[in-house]
Amino acid sequence: MDSIYDQERFFSQYAQMPRSREGLPAAGEWHQLKPLFPALQGKSVLDLGCGYGWHCQFAAQQGAAEVLGIDASRRMIEEARRRNAECGVRYQVCGIDEYAYPDSTWDCVLSNLVLHYISDLEPVFQKVYRTLKPDGVFLFNIEHPVFTAGVGQDWVYAEDGTPQYWPVDRYFQPGARETHFLGCQVVKQHHTLTQILMGLLHSGFILEAVEEAEPPAGMMDRPGMADELRRPMMLLVKARKGAC
After folding, report:
1. How many whole angstroms separate alpha carbon 145 and alpha carbon 136?
2. DSSP state at residue 79
3. Residue 179 and residue 164: Cα distance in Å, rounded?
4. Between vectors from CA 52 to CA 50 and to CA 54, what angle results, nearest 5°?
Protein backbone atom coordinates (compact mmCIF):
# COMPACT_ATOMS: atom_id res chain seq x y z
CA MET A 1 0.00 0.00 0.00
CA ASP A 2 1.30 3.46 -0.91
CA SER A 3 2.45 5.72 1.90
CA ILE A 4 0.26 8.72 2.64
CA TYR A 5 3.49 10.73 2.60
CA ASP A 6 3.67 10.12 -1.15
CA GLN A 7 0.34 11.87 -1.71
CA GLU A 8 0.92 15.35 -3.14
CA ARG A 9 -1.34 17.28 -0.76
CA PHE A 10 -0.08 15.55 2.38
CA PHE A 11 3.58 15.76 1.38
CA SER A 12 3.22 19.46 0.56
CA GLN A 13 1.63 20.19 3.93
CA TYR A 14 4.29 18.18 5.76
CA ALA A 15 6.99 20.19 4.01
CA GLN A 16 5.63 23.36 5.65
CA MET A 17 6.06 22.11 9.23
CA PRO A 18 8.88 23.80 11.20
CA ARG A 19 10.61 20.45 11.80
CA SER A 20 10.57 19.85 8.04
CA ARG A 21 11.99 23.27 7.17
CA GLU A 22 14.47 23.70 10.02
CA GLY A 23 15.37 20.18 11.12
CA LEU A 24 15.92 18.83 14.61
CA PRO A 25 16.26 22.17 16.48
CA ALA A 26 12.66 22.95 15.49
CA ALA A 27 11.32 19.69 16.93
CA GLY A 28 9.84 20.30 20.37
CA GLU A 29 10.99 16.91 21.67
CA TRP A 30 14.59 17.13 20.47
CA HIS A 31 15.96 18.64 23.70
CA GLN A 32 14.80 15.46 25.48
CA LEU A 33 15.50 12.92 22.77
CA LYS A 34 19.06 14.01 22.01
CA PRO A 35 20.48 13.17 25.49
CA LEU A 36 19.03 9.65 25.23
CA PHE A 37 21.25 8.72 22.28
CA PRO A 38 24.16 6.42 23.12
CA ALA A 39 27.67 7.29 22.00
CA LEU A 40 27.67 6.74 18.23
CA GLN A 41 31.36 7.12 17.35
CA GLY A 42 32.26 4.16 15.12
CA LYS A 43 28.84 2.58 15.57
CA SER A 44 26.21 1.31 13.12
CA VAL A 45 22.77 2.94 13.16
CA LEU A 46 19.43 1.95 11.63
CA ASP A 47 16.66 4.57 11.37
CA LEU A 48 13.19 3.08 10.96
CA GLY A 49 11.00 5.58 9.12
CA CYS A 50 13.75 8.12 8.56
CA GLY A 51 11.66 10.78 6.80
CA TYR A 52 13.91 13.62 5.65
CA GLY A 53 16.92 11.94 7.24
CA TRP A 54 17.55 14.48 10.01
CA HIS A 55 18.40 11.80 12.58
CA CYS A 56 20.59 9.98 10.05
CA GLN A 57 22.51 13.22 9.54
CA PHE A 58 22.87 13.61 13.31
CA ALA A 59 24.20 10.05 13.67
CA ALA A 60 26.75 10.62 10.93
CA GLN A 61 27.87 13.89 12.51
CA GLN A 62 28.34 12.04 15.82
CA GLY A 63 30.83 9.75 14.10
CA ALA A 64 28.68 6.73 13.24
CA ALA A 65 30.54 4.46 10.84
CA GLU A 66 27.41 3.19 9.10
CA VAL A 67 23.89 4.65 8.92
CA LEU A 68 20.90 3.21 7.06
CA GLY A 69 17.64 5.14 6.86
CA ILE A 70 14.57 3.30 5.59
CA ASP A 71 11.16 4.74 4.83
CA ALA A 72 8.12 3.41 3.00
CA SER A 73 7.71 6.76 1.25
CA ARG A 74 9.60 7.20 -1.99
CA ARG A 75 9.26 10.97 -1.76
CA MET A 76 10.66 11.04 1.77
CA ILE A 77 13.71 9.05 0.70
CA GLU A 78 14.25 11.34 -2.28
CA GLU A 79 14.10 14.34 0.06
CA ALA A 80 16.47 12.68 2.53
CA ARG A 81 19.02 12.04 -0.20
CA ARG A 82 18.74 15.66 -1.31
CA ARG A 83 18.96 17.24 2.15
CA ASN A 84 21.02 14.88 4.26
CA ALA A 85 23.45 12.98 2.06
CA GLU A 86 26.12 12.73 4.73
CA CYS A 87 29.13 10.48 4.22
CA GLY A 88 28.36 6.96 5.44
CA VAL A 89 24.57 7.35 5.21
CA ARG A 90 22.50 5.12 2.96
CA TYR A 91 18.79 5.46 2.28
CA GLN A 92 16.37 2.80 1.10
CA VAL A 93 12.67 2.80 0.20
CA CYS A 94 11.44 0.08 2.52
CA GLY A 95 8.61 -0.27 5.03
CA ILE A 96 9.27 -1.19 8.65
CA ASP A 97 7.38 -4.45 8.09
CA GLU A 98 9.42 -5.25 4.97
CA TYR A 99 12.97 -4.81 6.28
CA ALA A 100 14.92 -8.06 6.75
CA TYR A 101 16.35 -7.26 10.23
CA PRO A 102 19.57 -9.31 9.89
CA ASP A 103 20.82 -10.84 13.12
CA SER A 104 23.15 -8.84 15.39
CA THR A 105 23.89 -6.12 12.82
CA TRP A 106 23.18 -2.72 14.40
CA ASP A 107 24.48 -0.94 17.50
CA CYS A 108 21.54 1.47 17.61
CA VAL A 109 18.06 1.31 16.10
CA LEU A 110 16.00 4.48 16.27
CA SER A 111 12.52 5.45 15.16
CA ASN A 112 10.90 8.87 15.41
CA LEU A 113 7.13 9.38 15.16
CA VAL A 114 6.49 6.31 13.01
CA LEU A 115 5.47 3.43 15.27
CA HIS A 116 1.96 4.83 15.82
CA TYR A 117 1.28 3.82 12.20
CA ILE A 118 2.04 0.15 13.03
CA SER A 119 -0.92 -1.96 14.12
CA ASP A 120 1.03 -4.66 15.99
CA LEU A 121 4.14 -3.42 17.78
CA GLU A 122 5.41 -6.57 19.44
CA PRO A 123 6.58 -8.31 16.22
CA VAL A 124 8.51 -5.14 15.35
CA PHE A 125 10.05 -5.06 18.83
CA GLN A 126 11.13 -8.71 18.42
CA LYS A 127 12.73 -7.99 15.03
CA VAL A 128 14.56 -4.96 16.40
CA TYR A 129 15.83 -7.01 19.32
CA ARG A 130 17.12 -9.64 16.88
CA THR A 131 18.91 -7.15 14.64
CA LEU A 132 20.65 -5.32 17.49
CA LYS A 133 24.11 -6.36 18.57
CA PRO A 134 24.55 -7.36 22.22
CA ASP A 135 24.27 -4.24 24.39
CA GLY A 136 22.61 -2.40 21.47
CA VAL A 137 20.10 0.41 22.03
CA PHE A 138 16.58 0.84 20.71
CA LEU A 139 15.48 4.48 20.93
CA PHE A 140 12.09 5.62 19.74
CA ASN A 141 9.54 8.41 19.92
CA ILE A 142 5.88 7.42 19.50
CA GLU A 143 2.70 9.43 19.87
CA HIS A 144 1.60 9.17 23.50
CA PRO A 145 -1.39 6.89 24.23
CA VAL A 146 -3.26 9.86 25.72
CA PHE A 147 -2.81 11.60 22.38
CA THR A 148 -3.78 8.67 20.17
CA ALA A 149 -6.82 8.00 22.37
CA GLY A 150 -7.93 11.60 21.92
CA VAL A 151 -11.30 11.94 20.23
CA GLY A 152 -10.31 12.96 16.71
CA GLN A 153 -6.93 13.85 18.22
CA ASP A 154 -8.15 17.35 18.88
CA TRP A 155 -9.33 19.64 21.66
CA VAL A 156 -12.88 20.51 22.55
CA TYR A 157 -13.10 24.24 21.87
CA ALA A 158 -15.04 27.08 23.48
CA GLU A 159 -17.19 29.31 21.28
CA ASP A 160 -14.29 31.73 20.91
CA GLY A 161 -12.00 28.96 19.65
CA THR A 162 -10.06 28.55 22.90
CA PRO A 163 -9.11 24.92 23.69
CA GLN A 164 -11.09 23.80 26.73
CA TYR A 165 -9.98 20.22 27.31
CA TRP A 166 -8.56 17.13 25.58
CA PRO A 167 -11.18 14.34 25.43
CA VAL A 168 -9.99 10.72 25.74
CA ASP A 169 -12.17 7.77 24.83
CA ARG A 170 -11.84 4.00 24.27
CA TYR A 171 -8.38 4.04 25.81
CA PHE A 172 -8.32 0.26 26.42
CA GLN A 173 -9.48 -0.51 22.89
CA PRO A 174 -6.31 -0.47 20.77
CA GLY A 175 -6.50 -0.19 17.03
CA ALA A 176 -7.07 2.18 14.17
CA ARG A 177 -8.12 5.76 14.88
CA GLU A 178 -8.95 8.17 12.09
CA THR A 179 -7.83 11.75 12.52
CA HIS A 180 -7.56 14.94 10.49
CA PHE A 181 -3.87 15.71 10.11
CA LEU A 182 -2.21 18.16 7.72
CA GLY A 183 -5.45 18.68 5.84
CA CYS A 184 -6.01 14.97 5.21
CA GLN A 185 -7.81 12.06 6.83
CA VAL A 186 -5.10 9.88 8.34
CA VAL A 187 -5.36 6.50 10.08
CA LYS A 188 -3.08 6.03 13.09
CA GLN A 189 -2.89 3.14 15.53
CA HIS A 190 -3.66 3.54 19.21
CA HIS A 191 -1.59 1.47 21.66
CA THR A 192 -1.92 1.56 25.42
CA LEU A 193 1.05 2.36 27.62
CA THR A 194 0.96 -1.24 28.86
CA GLN A 195 1.19 -2.57 25.31
CA ILE A 196 4.17 -0.39 24.48
CA LEU A 197 6.25 -0.96 27.59
CA MET A 198 5.32 -4.58 28.29
CA GLY A 199 5.79 -5.36 24.61
CA LEU A 200 9.41 -4.29 24.97
CA LEU A 201 9.88 -6.35 28.14
CA HIS A 202 8.27 -9.41 26.55
CA SER A 203 10.70 -9.05 23.65
CA GLY A 204 13.68 -9.19 26.01
CA PHE A 205 14.56 -5.50 26.27
CA ILE A 206 15.79 -3.74 29.39
CA LEU A 207 14.07 -0.37 29.84
CA GLU A 208 16.49 2.47 30.49
CA ALA A 209 14.38 5.59 30.05
CA VAL A 210 10.73 6.52 29.62
CA GLU A 211 9.96 10.22 29.17
CA GLU A 212 6.91 12.21 28.18
CA ALA A 213 7.93 15.01 25.85
CA GLU A 214 7.48 18.60 27.00
CA PRO A 215 8.30 21.53 24.71
CA PRO A 216 11.26 23.62 25.84
CA ALA A 217 10.85 27.05 27.43
CA GLY A 218 12.34 28.67 24.33
CA MET A 219 9.34 27.54 22.25
CA MET A 220 6.62 28.76 24.57
CA ASP A 221 6.05 31.89 22.50
CA ARG A 222 4.99 29.84 19.45
CA PRO A 223 1.23 29.65 18.75
CA GLY A 224 -0.43 26.78 20.58
CA MET A 225 2.78 25.57 22.21
CA ALA A 226 1.69 26.40 25.77
CA ASP A 227 -1.28 24.06 25.31
CA GLU A 228 1.19 21.20 24.75
CA LEU A 229 1.79 21.27 28.51
CA ARG A 230 -1.87 20.41 29.14
CA ARG A 231 -1.59 16.83 27.87
CA PRO A 232 1.28 14.66 26.62
CA MET A 233 1.73 14.28 22.88
CA MET A 234 4.84 12.11 22.59
CA LEU A 235 6.43 9.25 24.51
CA LEU A 236 10.21 8.77 24.36
CA VAL A 237 11.61 5.34 25.21
CA LYS A 238 15.15 4.00 25.44
CA ALA A 239 15.60 0.24 25.74
CA ARG A 240 18.71 -1.94 25.63
CA LYS A 241 19.44 -5.47 24.49
CA GLY A 242 21.34 -7.45 27.09
CA ALA A 243 25.08 -7.93 26.69
CA CYS A 244 24.74 -11.72 26.52
Report:
1. 26
2. H
3. 19
4. 80
Per-residue model confidence as pLDDT tens digits over 27-83: 889 999 999 999 999 999 999 999 999 999 999 999 999 999 999 999 999 999 998
Which of 211, 203, 209 shows the shortest CA–CA distance to 242? 203
Residue type, 97: D
Element (H, E) at 69: strand 66-71
Give me the sign of the Cα torsion angle 55, 56, 57, 61.
Answer: positive
Contact residues for 41 (Cβ-Cβ < 8 A; gap 6+): 62, 63, 64
Tell me how far apart the terminal alpha carbons of the chain are, to the nearest angstrom: 38
Query: Who contacts 161 (Cβ-Cβ below 8 Å, separation ≥6)?
Result: none
pTM attached to this predicted model: 0.93
State yes or no: pLDDT of 238 exceeds 70.
Answer: yes
